[in-house]
Amino acid sequence: MYLRFARCSPGPEKFNAKAAWKVMKNYDSRYLELTAASMEKQILSKTLFIPPGLKSSEGHSVFYMRPSRYFPKQTSTKEIIDNLVYCMQVMVEEEKSCTEGEYVWCHVFLFLKKMWMFHFTNRHVLKQK
Q1: Interatomic CA distance for residues 44 and 85, integer angstroms
Q2: Do residues 9 and 15 touch, judged by C-beta distance below 8 A?
Q3: Strand pairing category for 48-49 and 62-65
Q4: Which of 71, 73, 96, 125 is the most exposed place for a label (fewest CB within 10 A)?
Q5: Any idea of the CA torsion for 40, 33, 49, 10, to the nearest 10 degrees?
Q6: What pTM, to 2 d.p., does this model score?
């Protein structure tokens, strides 16, 4: 874990002890205890996850988001944030992701369609009653 903080230290210079220490002091320690087993339900929902073996054309790991699979009444914001943090922690274990970044694929088509239908229904259909 120490090496990861050092390698991912903010700023142009990697392995900067001062920058890494600053991040480590402010890091929420509960994120260090996240495991795949504790995130199983959230990972299986495939709202936020890392598709195994999928890489961008530049060879970066892919982080996939699908907001249409998120249901606020069933999943708390804390669970979503924990899942996001877990996925990012797993991705930065690879040096390429840590030094060059990741590819984020946000599939919002169905989400936008649902939101448009909700907006249209509230605005036009419900007003006429």
Answers
A1: 16
A2: yes
A3: antiparallel
A4: 73
A5: 180
A6: 0.66
